Amino acid sequence: MSRTLTHLDEKGEARMVDVGDKAHTQRVAVAESRLVMQPETLELILSGGHKKGDVLATARIAGIMAAKRTGDLIPMCHPLMLTKVKVELTPEPEHHAVRITAECAVTGQTGVEMEALTAASVAALTLYDMCKAVDRGMVIEQTRLLEKRGGKSGHWQAGEA
């Protein structure tokens, strides 16, 4: 694993990394986030009784849209033509939570870790926003990269949380 920060130039100043000489390869990243809430809030979401409608579907769409705009949101992040964005929201009733998993893919010269992390984060934030009127104490936690495949560094997978 490299111990060098890649977004710094020889003067130590921030820059966008030049990926022009890198090969175009299939690259995939999977990230997750989790929103923990009161049991009643999760029940409201699952029953479909929320006055804002299907908040899980709205959060899924928000995550997909955010992944596509990551280059506009994260400084020095390359704008990518994503070939796949999949956002899943899985209720975890035993933990009074919703787990958000985002998978992004591209055939390109740089990875999609930031796109997957952005998708998971924005989906969690959207769900929080839509439910905050009934539960301001919700907590977004465990936002992390789960897996990345492809590119020069190959395959990486996180250990258990």
From TrEMBL:
Q: Can you supply a Gene Ontology BP term from the record?
A: Mo-molybdopterin cofactor biosynthetic process
Question: What is the superkingdom listed in this entry's lineage?
Answer: Bacteria
Q: What is its EC number?
A: 4.6.1.17
- One Pfam family per UniProt: MoaC
The UniProt entry, under SUPFAM superfamilies, shows:
Molybdenum cofactor biosynthesis protein C, MoaC
> What is an example of a GO molecular function annotated in this UniProt entry?
cyclic pyranopterin monophosphate synthase activity
Report residues binding substrate: M76, C77, H78, M114, E115
Active-site residues are D129
Query: What protein family is recorded?
Result: Belongs to the MoaC family.
Q: What is this protein called?
A: Cyclic pyranopterin monophosphate synthase
Q: Which organism is it from?
A: Guyparkeria halophila
The gene coding this protein: moaC
